[in-house]
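Reminder: ligand-aware prediction takes two inputs, not one.
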Amino acid sequence: MTELERIRHSAAHVMATAILRIWPEAQFAAGPPVEQGFYYDVDLPHRISPEDFERIEAEMRKETKANHVFERIEVSREEALAMAGRGELAALGPRSAPSRFKLDIVQNIPEDEVITLYRNGDFTDLCAGPHVMRTGNVGAFKLTHVASAYYKGDEKNPQLQRIYGTAFKNKTALDEHFAMLEEAKKRDHRRIGAEMGLFAIDAEFVGPGMPLWLPKGTVLVEELEKLAKETEFAAGYVRVRTPHLAREKMYLTSGHLPYYEESMFPAMELKAENGEECSDRYYLKAMNCPHHHRIFAAEPRSYRDLPLRLAEYGCCYRYEQSGELFGLMRVRSLNMNDAHIYCTEEQFAGEFRAVNDMYLKYFKIFGLEKYQMRFSTHDPAKLGQKFVNEPELWRKTEDMVRRVLVESGINFIEVPNEAAFYGPKIDVQVWSAIGREFTIATNQVDFAVPAKFGLTYRDRDNTDKTPLCIHRAPLGTHERFIGFLIEHYAGNFPLWLAPDQVRVITIGEDEALVKYARDLHDELRAHGVRADIDLGNDPMKAKIADAEKSKVHTMLIIGARDLEAGNVSIRIHGKGNLGARPKNEAIGDLLLQIRERMA
Ligand SMILES: [Zn+2]
Ligand SMILES: [Zn+2]
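Here is what comes back for the chain with zinc ion:
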């Protein structure tokens, strides 16, 4: 957990303390930190509403003022069960009813795991931690909303009240957060997406969570792909293409089945030609990796073929719960800026460095000044359970990753015990222009799955070895990344990315002037510029207002004086007039800005 996550999770304990002071019968379930803050699930006959927040917050303030220590206590399974039975977990003391969710959680803790409690003042909770030192470290907090959620996300279980809040180190940070959310509302990607005609979600006919890219949104998609293809080509990647589905065997081998089955669309069952029996099962792919592994396996490989960098903007399908779907941010069909790098241990550090350099290059293009890499590592105590049992490989790759991050001067934090099962991973967090945080991409090392697929290369010494695999997706998915960019730019995309790059606007209907404007428009189109032309007889003011409203990046306005001098008058969306310039100079400058992907 990061420091902010520890503050927020600790705030959840403080909130539970406060709720129990008002409603001692409250039964708590889970209370983790989340992207924007924290929540705690509670079962309580009283329906908590925003009207109750002030009262709860007042009790919370007493608790943070008291500045109690968060005390970590190790207990035996028997003790934990006995305490839950007496209603003492997530409670201020013994109660008449058992702490029933905590009882269930204790019963599901694996035999060999240490059980810990955390105590602040008279509140004791079952919790793995970690926490901040004292309740006073929860500097500023606010409850935000209430939702409902099933215990463990299963609709067969009781429905609980999910109380959300957020917390920061101090009041200034808290205030900045809410000011940023206000601005984010104005920049909501769903609203701007609809206004600009970028994408549509047709839940009735196509399905929820499956965005349709409209022509202007498709421009964004294709510009991003062009950027990725050029960048990856220069970095020595090769492109591949794979189908959207695969046989069951693929996902049994990769381990997606059964572990990931809930997140996949259900199987398509094929009938045998003569009868009713199911002869085969296919699944829509939830990840591109297995297909790429089969491309690696499609030909014999030698050490001379490595590193092999297979890239594809692959389309995946994930069955997100309908309650989780959100605009472009949480979807069921997603196009990923994917690639898998197969390499030897010796090549690993160099490949990993190159991937990082690519991230930094992209950050620069998009003007992302604030970013952070979250480096998740393994816990040696959990080898063979939570993490694949390869102690040497874990140590070596984590050391290499850490060294590369330090040497490249990259801003990163290390989070123990959060690696993927098959290797360390890096989540890339970026902050939009208004300071909102997004996780857009991941970069993972994999030393387990290539072996499962039996991938080998013939080494110098004529033995067969298993390659390491780096999964990386710097531009994430089109859906999430474009959702992020819409907010980042408030829809005012830089010229290279703007769906409408240039509009030629005429003042007057003089024949020579119209011809001049048409020729200019044709010339821009011939250079691949997304230009259109407004020859209508509306007043200039109305034409400009229309172009501004559609967020056309550059307006080239042609009046009688421009015609005479061979000029164009330039106006930039949201910035105003730049004055007149010779036509060829203006065109040359536009082409340069586009080619160099200037901000
Ligand atoms: Zn806790
Ligand atoms: Zn992958």
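Residues 287-289, 340, 471 surround zinc ion (ligand 2) (CB under 6 Å). The chain is about 35% helix and 25% strand. We will return to this case in the review session.
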